Automatic annotation (TrEMBL):
It comes from the Bacteria. Keywords: Hydrolase. The lineage of its organism: Bacteria, Bacillati, Actinomycetota, Actinomycetes, Propionibacteriales. CDD domains: NT_KNTase_like (cd05403), NUDIX_Hydrolase (cd02883). Belongs to the Nudix hydrolase family. Residues 164-334 form the N-acetyltransferase domain. It comes from Kribbella speibonae. Transmembrane segments: none annotated. It holds the Pfam family NUDIX. This is GNAT family N-acetyltransferase. Residues 2-134 form the Nudix hydrolase domain.
Protein backbone atom coordinates (compact mmCIF):
# COMPACT_ATOMS: atom_id res chain seq x y z
CA UNK A 1 0.00 0.00 0.00
CA UNK A 2 1.26 3.48 -0.86
CA UNK A 3 2.35 5.85 1.91
CA UNK A 4 -0.13 8.28 3.42
CA UNK A 5 0.00 11.64 1.63
CA UNK A 6 -2.58 13.64 3.56
CA UNK A 7 -4.89 13.50 6.56
CA UNK A 8 -8.34 14.83 7.36
CA UNK A 9 -9.87 15.72 10.72
CA UNK A 10 -13.57 15.09 11.21
CA UNK A 11 -13.91 17.32 14.26
CA UNK A 12 -17.11 16.57 16.14
CA UNK A 13 -18.93 18.53 18.82
CA UNK A 14 -21.25 17.33 21.58
CA UNK A 15 -24.22 17.48 19.21
CA UNK A 16 -22.52 15.06 16.78
CA UNK A 17 -22.00 17.81 14.20
CA UNK A 18 -18.84 17.99 12.06
CA UNK A 19 -16.81 21.16 11.63
CA UNK A 20 -16.50 22.50 8.07
CA UNK A 21 -14.61 25.43 6.58
CA UNK A 22 -14.93 27.04 3.18
CA UNK A 23 -11.91 27.28 0.93
CA UNK A 24 -11.31 30.76 -0.48
CA UNK A 25 -12.39 31.42 -4.04
CA UNK A 26 -8.83 31.95 -5.27
CA UNK A 27 -7.52 28.54 -4.16
CA UNK A 28 -6.10 26.54 -7.06
CA UNK A 29 -7.48 23.23 -5.77
CA UNK A 30 -11.27 23.11 -5.37
CA UNK A 31 -11.91 26.84 -4.80
CA UNK A 32 -15.00 27.93 -2.91
CA UNK A 33 -16.02 24.51 -1.60
CA UNK A 34 -16.71 23.46 1.96
CA UNK A 35 -14.10 21.06 3.30
CA UNK A 36 -12.96 19.35 6.47
CA UNK A 37 -9.75 20.31 8.26
CA UNK A 38 -6.64 18.63 6.91
CA UNK A 39 -3.63 18.72 4.64
CA UNK A 40 -0.48 17.03 3.47
CA UNK A 41 2.15 15.40 5.67
CA UNK A 42 5.43 17.23 6.02
CA UNK A 43 8.77 15.45 5.83
CA UNK A 44 9.29 13.08 8.76
CA UNK A 45 5.75 13.44 10.14
CA UNK A 46 3.47 10.57 11.10
CA UNK A 47 -0.17 10.90 10.07
CA UNK A 48 -1.13 11.58 13.68
CA UNK A 49 1.47 14.35 14.00
CA UNK A 50 0.27 15.93 10.77
CA UNK A 51 -3.30 15.71 12.03
CA UNK A 52 -2.48 17.61 15.24
CA UNK A 53 -0.50 20.24 13.33
CA UNK A 54 -3.19 20.83 10.69
CA UNK A 55 -5.96 21.14 13.28
CA UNK A 56 -4.02 23.76 15.24
CA UNK A 57 -2.90 25.68 12.13
CA UNK A 58 -6.38 25.82 10.59
CA UNK A 59 -8.55 26.31 13.69
CA UNK A 60 -6.42 27.19 16.71
CA UNK A 61 -7.81 24.14 18.54
CA UNK A 62 -5.79 21.21 19.87
CA UNK A 63 -6.63 17.57 19.26
CA UNK A 64 -7.82 16.02 22.49
CA UNK A 65 -8.64 12.50 21.32
CA UNK A 66 -8.51 10.50 18.10
CA UNK A 67 -11.74 8.55 18.47
CA UNK A 68 -11.16 6.28 15.49
CA UNK A 69 -9.91 6.05 11.93
CA UNK A 70 -12.95 6.56 9.71
CA UNK A 71 -11.62 6.28 6.17
CA UNK A 72 -8.49 5.34 4.24
CA UNK A 73 -8.94 6.15 0.57
CA UNK A 74 -7.30 7.52 -2.56
CA UNK A 75 -8.15 10.43 -4.82
CA UNK A 76 -6.58 11.95 -7.91
CA UNK A 77 -5.84 15.54 -8.85
CA UNK A 78 -4.00 16.63 -12.00
CA UNK A 79 -2.79 13.12 -12.64
CA UNK A 80 -1.41 12.52 -9.15
CA UNK A 81 -2.97 9.93 -6.83
CA UNK A 82 -3.01 10.78 -3.15
CA UNK A 83 -3.75 8.49 -0.22
CA UNK A 84 -5.79 10.17 2.51
CA UNK A 85 -6.61 8.92 6.01
CA UNK A 86 -9.47 10.65 7.84
CA UNK A 87 -9.89 10.56 11.61
CA UNK A 88 -12.82 11.28 13.89
CA UNK A 89 -11.46 13.60 16.59
CA UNK A 90 -12.47 15.73 19.52
CA UNK A 91 -10.63 18.96 20.29
CA UNK A 92 -9.94 21.40 23.11
CA UNK A 93 -10.68 25.07 22.59
CA UNK A 94 -13.59 27.43 22.14
CA UNK A 95 -15.67 25.69 19.49
CA UNK A 96 -17.65 28.85 18.84
CA UNK A 97 -14.50 30.74 17.73
CA UNK A 98 -12.32 28.87 15.26
CA UNK A 99 -9.25 30.73 14.02
CA UNK A 100 -9.51 30.54 10.25
CA UNK A 101 -6.22 30.32 8.41
CA UNK A 102 -5.79 33.62 6.56
CA UNK A 103 -5.92 33.36 2.79
CA UNK A 104 -7.05 29.75 2.82
CA UNK A 105 -10.52 29.73 4.41
CA UNK A 106 -13.14 32.45 4.67
CA UNK A 107 -16.09 30.85 6.54
CA UNK A 108 -16.87 28.05 8.97
CA UNK A 109 -19.91 26.00 9.95
CA UNK A 110 -20.99 23.04 12.05
CA UNK A 111 -22.81 20.53 9.87
CA UNK A 112 -25.51 18.25 11.21
CA UNK A 113 -27.74 15.83 9.31
CA UNK A 114 -29.67 18.68 7.73
CA UNK A 115 -26.61 20.58 6.50
CA UNK A 116 -24.98 18.04 4.21
CA UNK A 117 -25.83 19.94 1.01
CA UNK A 118 -23.19 22.50 2.02
CA UNK A 119 -20.59 20.00 0.87
CA UNK A 120 -21.94 20.14 -2.69
CA UNK A 121 -21.88 23.94 -3.02
CA UNK A 122 -19.55 25.04 -5.83
CA UNK A 123 -18.62 21.40 -6.33
CA UNK A 124 -18.44 21.56 -10.11
CA UNK A 125 -17.11 18.00 -10.43
CA UNK A 126 -20.21 16.59 -8.69
CA UNK A 127 -18.02 14.42 -6.44
CA UNK A 128 -20.15 13.27 -3.47
CA UNK A 129 -17.46 11.34 -1.64
CA UNK A 130 -16.65 13.97 0.98
CA UNK A 131 -20.34 14.69 1.46
CA UNK A 132 -21.03 11.00 2.05
CA UNK A 133 -18.08 10.72 4.43
CA UNK A 134 -19.38 13.59 6.57
CA UNK A 135 -22.90 12.13 6.39
CA UNK A 136 -21.52 8.85 7.72
CA UNK A 137 -19.94 10.59 10.70
CA UNK A 138 -22.85 12.84 11.70
CA UNK A 139 -25.23 9.87 11.52
CA UNK A 140 -22.96 7.46 13.44
CA UNK A 141 -23.64 7.00 17.15
CA UNK A 142 -21.68 5.34 19.95
CA UNK A 143 -23.21 3.61 22.96
CA UNK A 144 -21.28 2.18 25.89
CA UNK A 145 -20.52 -0.99 23.95
CA UNK A 146 -21.56 -0.43 20.34
CA UNK A 147 -20.63 1.61 17.30
CA UNK A 148 -23.72 2.27 15.19
CA UNK A 149 -22.97 3.10 11.55
CA UNK A 150 -25.65 4.21 9.06
CA UNK A 151 -26.22 1.47 6.50
CA UNK A 152 -24.88 2.56 3.11
CA UNK A 153 -23.44 1.10 -0.03
CA UNK A 154 -19.83 1.52 -1.22
CA UNK A 155 -19.07 5.12 -2.20
CA UNK A 156 -15.38 5.22 -3.09
CA UNK A 157 -14.42 6.17 0.45
CA UNK A 158 -16.22 3.62 2.62
CA UNK A 159 -16.75 -0.04 1.67
CA UNK A 160 -20.47 -0.13 2.48
CA UNK A 161 -22.42 -2.60 4.59
CA UNK A 162 -23.83 -5.07 2.08
CA UNK A 163 -21.60 -8.00 3.15
CA UNK A 164 -22.34 -7.45 6.85
CA UNK A 165 -26.06 -7.22 6.18
CA UNK A 166 -25.87 -10.54 4.36
CA UNK A 167 -24.04 -12.07 7.32
CA UNK A 168 -26.64 -10.70 9.71
CA UNK A 169 -29.63 -12.20 7.92
CA UNK A 170 -27.81 -15.53 7.61
CA UNK A 171 -27.51 -15.69 11.41
CA UNK A 172 -29.76 -18.49 12.76
CA UNK A 173 -31.58 -16.31 15.27
CA UNK A 174 -32.17 -13.43 12.85
CA UNK A 175 -33.29 -15.84 10.13
CA UNK A 176 -35.93 -17.13 12.57
CA UNK A 177 -37.74 -13.79 12.30
CA UNK A 178 -36.72 -12.57 8.84
CA UNK A 179 -37.12 -14.93 5.89
CA UNK A 180 -34.54 -13.35 3.60
CA UNK A 181 -31.92 -14.74 1.24
CA UNK A 182 -28.39 -13.22 1.17
CA UNK A 183 -29.19 -11.62 -2.19
CA UNK A 184 -32.36 -10.05 -0.80
CA UNK A 185 -30.39 -8.73 2.19
CA UNK A 186 -27.82 -7.12 -0.10
CA UNK A 187 -30.60 -5.64 -2.24
CA UNK A 188 -31.88 -3.77 0.83
CA UNK A 189 -28.81 -1.54 1.01
CA UNK A 190 -29.76 1.08 -1.64
CA UNK A 191 -33.21 1.51 -0.12
CA UNK A 192 -31.79 1.83 3.39
CA UNK A 193 -29.26 4.42 2.24
CA UNK A 194 -31.98 6.33 0.38
CA UNK A 195 -34.05 6.29 3.56
CA UNK A 196 -31.28 8.14 5.42
CA UNK A 197 -31.18 10.86 2.77
CA UNK A 198 -34.95 11.10 2.41
CA UNK A 199 -36.01 10.91 6.06
CA UNK A 200 -32.89 12.08 7.89
CA UNK A 201 -32.94 8.79 9.81
CA UNK A 202 -32.53 5.12 9.14
CA UNK A 203 -31.08 1.84 10.27
CA UNK A 204 -27.60 1.37 11.70
CA UNK A 205 -25.28 -1.62 11.51
CA UNK A 206 -24.06 -2.35 15.06
CA UNK A 207 -20.49 -3.38 15.86
CA UNK A 208 -18.98 -4.32 19.19
CA UNK A 209 -16.65 -1.43 20.07
CA UNK A 210 -14.12 -3.66 21.80
CA UNK A 211 -13.82 -6.30 19.05
CA UNK A 212 -15.32 -4.72 15.88
CA UNK A 213 -17.46 -7.86 15.57
CA UNK A 214 -20.87 -7.58 13.94
CA UNK A 215 -23.58 -7.43 16.62
CA UNK A 216 -26.74 -6.61 14.67
CA UNK A 217 -28.65 -3.74 13.16
CA UNK A 218 -31.28 -1.34 14.42
CA UNK A 219 -32.50 2.21 14.58
CA UNK A 220 -35.30 4.12 12.93
CA UNK A 221 -37.34 3.91 9.75
CA UNK A 222 -40.39 5.76 8.55
CA UNK A 223 -43.45 3.67 7.69
CA UNK A 224 -45.09 4.99 4.53
CA UNK A 225 -48.40 6.71 5.23
CA UNK A 226 -51.54 5.17 3.82
CA UNK A 227 -50.49 1.54 4.11
CA UNK A 228 -52.73 -0.79 6.13
CA UNK A 229 -50.02 -1.22 8.77
CA UNK A 230 -49.47 2.54 9.07
CA UNK A 231 -53.19 3.22 9.39
CA UNK A 232 -53.62 0.51 12.03
CA UNK A 233 -50.71 1.89 14.06
CA UNK A 234 -51.89 5.50 13.69
CA UNK A 235 -55.26 4.52 15.17
CA UNK A 236 -53.39 3.42 18.32
CA UNK A 237 -50.54 5.96 18.44
CA UNK A 238 -52.59 9.06 17.66
CA UNK A 239 -52.34 11.91 15.17
CA UNK A 240 -49.00 13.16 16.57
CA UNK A 241 -47.26 10.04 15.22
CA UNK A 242 -45.47 10.83 11.93
CA UNK A 243 -44.44 7.31 10.93
CA UNK A 244 -41.20 6.82 12.86
CA UNK A 245 -40.63 3.21 13.89
CA UNK A 246 -37.87 1.86 16.12
CA UNK A 247 -36.47 -1.64 15.62
CA UNK A 248 -33.48 -3.91 16.14
CA UNK A 249 -32.14 -7.35 15.31
CA UNK A 250 -29.15 -8.98 17.00
CA UNK A 251 -26.99 -11.92 16.07
CA UNK A 252 -27.43 -14.95 18.27
CA UNK A 253 -24.01 -14.40 19.91
CA UNK A 254 -24.94 -10.81 20.84
CA UNK A 255 -28.22 -11.67 22.54
CA UNK A 256 -28.76 -11.64 26.29
CA UNK A 257 -26.36 -8.76 26.98
CA UNK A 258 -28.68 -5.76 26.88
CA UNK A 259 -27.41 -4.59 23.48
CA UNK A 260 -30.88 -4.25 21.97
CA UNK A 261 -31.69 -1.76 24.73
CA UNK A 262 -28.56 0.23 23.86
CA UNK A 263 -29.60 0.36 20.20
CA UNK A 264 -33.13 1.33 21.20
CA UNK A 265 -31.96 4.13 23.48
CA UNK A 266 -29.72 5.50 20.72
CA UNK A 267 -32.64 5.40 18.29
CA UNK A 268 -34.98 7.20 20.66
CA UNK A 269 -32.34 9.80 21.43
CA UNK A 270 -31.80 10.39 17.69
CA UNK A 271 -35.55 10.69 17.14
CA UNK A 272 -36.26 13.16 19.92
CA UNK A 273 -32.99 15.12 19.96
CA UNK A 274 -31.92 15.22 16.31
CA UNK A 275 -35.27 14.92 14.54
CA UNK A 276 -37.43 16.62 17.20
CA UNK A 277 -39.95 13.82 16.81
CA UNK A 278 -43.27 13.98 18.62
CA UNK A 279 -43.55 10.21 19.11
CA UNK A 280 -41.97 6.93 18.08
CA UNK A 281 -43.51 3.46 17.90
CA UNK A 282 -42.11 -0.05 17.96
CA UNK A 283 -44.04 -3.18 17.13
CA UNK A 284 -43.41 -6.90 17.01
CA UNK A 285 -45.27 -10.18 16.92
CA UNK A 286 -47.08 -10.99 20.16
CA UNK A 287 -45.01 -14.17 20.38
CA UNK A 288 -41.78 -12.16 20.41
CA UNK A 289 -41.76 -11.52 24.15
CA UNK A 290 -38.01 -10.75 24.17
CA UNK A 291 -38.45 -7.68 21.97
CA UNK A 292 -41.46 -6.56 23.98
CA UNK A 293 -39.33 -6.70 27.12
CA UNK A 294 -36.83 -4.38 25.45
CA UNK A 295 -39.61 -1.96 24.53
CA UNK A 296 -40.73 -1.88 28.15
CA UNK A 297 -37.15 -1.31 29.38
CA UNK A 298 -36.92 1.64 27.01
CA UNK A 299 -39.95 3.19 28.68
CA UNK A 300 -42.27 2.63 25.74
CA UNK A 301 -45.88 2.05 26.66
CA UNK A 302 -48.19 -0.62 25.28
CA UNK A 303 -50.70 0.98 22.91
CA UNK A 304 -52.59 -2.02 21.62
CA UNK A 305 -52.63 -4.73 18.99
CA UNK A 306 -52.69 -4.79 15.19
CA UNK A 307 -52.65 -7.66 12.69
CA UNK A 308 -50.16 -8.09 9.86
CA UNK A 309 -48.09 -10.76 8.15
CA UNK A 310 -45.82 -12.47 10.68
CA UNK A 311 -45.35 -15.30 13.14
CA UNK A 312 -48.10 -16.47 15.46
CA UNK A 313 -48.25 -18.87 18.38
CA UNK A 314 -48.52 -22.60 17.61
CA UNK A 315 -48.04 -22.17 13.86
CA UNK A 316 -44.98 -23.34 11.89
CA UNK A 317 -45.31 -20.81 9.08
CA UNK A 318 -45.72 -17.09 8.60
CA UNK A 319 -49.37 -16.10 8.91
CA UNK A 320 -51.12 -13.37 6.88
CA UNK A 321 -52.95 -12.00 9.91
CA UNK A 322 -50.67 -12.53 12.91
CA UNK A 323 -51.17 -10.41 16.07
CA UNK A 324 -48.58 -7.69 16.73
CA UNK A 325 -48.05 -5.67 19.90
CA UNK A 326 -47.56 -1.91 19.40
CA UNK A 327 -45.62 0.26 21.87
CA UNK A 328 -45.26 4.03 21.79
CA UNK A 329 -42.89 6.63 23.27
CA UNK A 330 -44.27 10.13 23.68
CA UNK A 331 -42.25 12.92 25.37
CA UNK A 332 -45.36 14.50 26.89
CA UNK A 333 -46.33 11.20 28.49
CA UNK A 334 -42.80 10.70 29.85
CA UNK A 335 -42.65 14.22 31.30
CA UNK A 336 -46.03 13.68 32.93
CA UNK A 337 -44.76 10.46 34.49
CA UNK A 338 -41.67 12.22 35.86
CA UNK A 339 -43.90 14.87 37.42
CA UNK A 340 -45.91 12.07 39.03
CA UNK A 341 -42.73 10.51 40.47
CA UNK A 342 -41.66 13.87 41.91
CA UNK A 343 -45.08 14.63 43.42
CA UNK A 344 -45.25 11.21 45.07
CA UNK A 345 -41.70 11.59 46.38
CA UNK A 346 -42.45 14.98 47.96
CA UNK A 347 -45.61 13.73 49.70
CA UNK A 348 -43.68 10.71 50.97
CA UNK A 349 -40.83 12.89 52.30
CA UNK A 350 -43.19 15.30 54.05
CA UNK A 351 -44.74 12.42 55.99
CA UNK A 352 -41.41 11.09 57.31
CA UNK A 353 -39.80 13.14 60.13
CA UNK A 354 -36.46 11.31 59.75
CA UNK A 355 -36.02 12.73 56.22
CA UNK A 356 -34.01 15.96 56.34
CA UNK A 357 -34.07 16.75 52.63
CA UNK A 358 -35.03 15.59 49.14
CA UNK A 359 -33.62 16.87 45.86
CA UNK A 360 -33.71 16.02 42.18
CA UNK A 361 -30.30 16.13 40.50
CA UNK A 362 -28.93 15.44 37.02
CA UNK A 363 -30.48 16.07 33.62
CA UNK A 364 -34.13 16.36 34.71
CA UNK A 365 -33.12 18.92 37.35
CA UNK A 366 -31.21 21.11 34.91
CA UNK A 367 -33.83 20.87 32.14
CA UNK A 368 -31.65 18.84 29.78
CA UNK A 369 -33.29 15.43 30.06
CA UNK A 370 -33.84 13.20 27.09
CA UNK A 371 -36.67 10.75 26.82
CA UNK A 372 -34.31 7.94 27.76
CA UNK A 373 -32.91 9.78 30.80
CA UNK A 374 -33.51 8.34 34.24
CA UNK A 375 -34.73 10.38 37.23
CA UNK A 376 -32.06 11.04 39.88
CA UNK A 377 -33.09 11.79 43.48
CA UNK A 378 -31.05 12.32 46.64
CA UNK A 379 -32.61 11.56 50.03
CA UNK A 380 -31.04 13.01 53.20
CA UNK A 381 -31.92 11.01 56.31
CA UNK A 382 -30.83 10.52 59.90
CA UNK A 383 -31.24 6.76 59.51
CA UNK A 384 -29.95 5.49 56.14
CA UNK A 385 -30.06 1.87 57.32
CA UNK A 386 -33.85 2.07 57.55
CA UNK A 387 -33.98 2.45 53.77
CA UNK A 388 -31.03 0.26 52.87
CA UNK A 389 -32.19 -2.80 54.80
CA UNK A 390 -35.86 -2.76 53.78
CA UNK A 391 -37.25 -2.27 50.27
CA UNK A 392 -40.94 -1.87 51.12
CA UNK A 393 -40.74 1.93 50.75
CA UNK A 394 -39.70 1.61 47.08
CA UNK A 395 -43.34 1.00 46.17
CA UNK A 396 -43.84 4.75 46.67
CA UNK A 397 -41.71 5.29 43.57
CA UNK A 398 -43.54 2.65 41.53
CA UNK A 399 -40.74 0.09 41.66
CA UNK A 400 -41.36 -3.20 39.88
CA UNK A 401 -37.68 -4.22 40.01
CA UNK A 402 -34.42 -3.17 41.65
CA UNK A 403 -31.91 -2.75 38.83
CA UNK A 404 -28.76 -1.96 40.82
CA UNK A 405 -27.32 -1.06 44.20
CA UNK A 406 -24.02 0.78 44.36
CA UNK A 407 -22.00 2.65 46.96
CA UNK A 408 -20.69 6.09 45.96
CA UNK A 409 -18.18 7.58 48.36
CA UNK A 410 -18.42 7.33 52.13
CA UNK A 411 -22.00 8.51 52.50
CA UNK A 412 -24.22 7.79 49.49
CA UNK A 413 -25.73 4.48 48.37
CA UNK A 414 -27.57 4.36 45.06
CA UNK A 415 -30.66 2.21 44.60
CA UNK A 416 -31.77 2.15 40.97
CA UNK A 417 -35.33 0.95 40.36
CA UNK A 418 -37.47 0.41 37.30
CA UNK A 419 -41.12 1.34 36.99
CA UNK A 420 -43.67 -0.62 34.98
CA UNK A 421 -43.31 1.85 32.09
CA UNK A 422 -39.57 1.20 31.90
CA UNK A 423 -38.62 4.56 33.45
CA UNK A 424 -35.69 4.12 35.84
CA UNK A 425 -35.40 6.12 39.04
CA UNK A 426 -32.05 6.37 40.81
CA UNK A 427 -32.45 7.11 44.52
CA UNK A 428 -29.36 8.09 46.47
CA UNK A 429 -29.78 7.37 50.18
CA UNK A 430 -27.35 9.36 52.31
CA UNK A 431 -26.74 10.72 55.79
CA UNK A 432 -26.90 14.48 56.27
CA UNK A 433 -23.08 14.54 56.26
CA UNK A 434 -23.32 14.36 52.46
CA UNK A 435 -24.69 17.92 52.53
CA UNK A 436 -21.99 19.31 54.86
CA UNK A 437 -20.75 22.74 53.77
CA UNK A 438 -17.52 23.17 55.76
CA UNK A 439 -16.05 21.96 53.54
CA UNK A 440 -18.25 20.64 50.71
CA UNK A 441 -17.26 17.13 49.69
CA UNK A 442 -15.85 17.18 46.08
CA UNK A 443 -18.23 14.43 45.00
CA UNK A 444 -21.20 16.29 46.46
CA UNK A 445 -20.08 19.49 44.74
CA UNK A 446 -19.98 17.73 41.36
CA UNK A 447 -23.52 16.45 41.82
CA UNK A 448 -24.90 19.84 42.90
CA UNK A 449 -23.16 21.92 40.23
CA UNK A 450 -24.36 19.49 37.55
CA UNK A 451 -27.93 20.50 38.32
CA UNK A 452 -30.14 20.43 41.40
CA UNK A 453 -33.79 21.10 42.18
CA UNK A 454 -34.60 21.14 45.89
CA UNK A 455 -37.92 19.40 46.57
CA UNK A 456 -38.11 19.16 50.38
CA UNK A 457 -35.82 21.07 52.74
CA UNK A 458 -37.47 21.77 56.11
CA UNK A 459 -34.22 22.76 57.85
CA UNK A 460 -32.50 24.43 54.87
CA UNK A 461 -29.66 21.89 54.66
CA UNK A 462 -29.92 21.74 50.88
CA UNK A 463 -30.37 25.48 50.41
CA UNK A 464 -27.12 26.07 52.33
CA UNK A 465 -25.38 23.41 50.24
CA UNK A 466 -26.49 25.02 46.97
CA UNK A 467 -25.19 28.41 48.15
CA UNK A 468 -21.91 26.87 49.25
CA UNK A 469 -21.47 25.36 45.79
CA UNK A 470 -21.91 28.76 44.20
CA UNK A 471 -25.38 28.08 42.80
CA UNK A 472 -28.59 30.10 42.92
CA UNK A 473 -30.97 30.05 45.83
CA UNK A 474 -32.61 26.69 46.35
CA UNK A 475 -35.76 26.09 44.33
CA UNK A 476 -38.12 25.08 47.15
Amino acid sequence: MRAVDCVGALIQDAEHRVYLQRRTADRRLLPGIWDIVGGHLEAGETPEQALAREVEEETGWKVRDIVRTVADWEWEWEGRVRREVDYLVTVDGDLTRPRLEAGKHDASAWAGPGDLDLLMENRTDGDRRLRDLVAHVVRTRFTDRLRLEPITGPNGVLPGHGPDLMRLYADPWVARWYDMTPAQAADQVPALQAGWDRDGAGKWIAYDRSTDELAGRGGLSRIAAGTPVAESIAALAGSHWTGLELGWALTESARGRGLATEIGRAGLDYAFTTLNATSVIAFTEQVNTASQSVMKRLGMQYAGQIHAEGWAADTPDVQPNAPFAVYVMNPAVRAQEVDEVVDNAVRWAEDRPDLRGLAMVGSWARGAARMTSDVDLVVLTDSPRTYLENDDWLATFGAVAVVRRQQWGPHLTEIRIQRASGLEVEIGITATAWAATEPVDPGTRRVVTDGVRVLHDPEQFLAALVRACGGPEADI
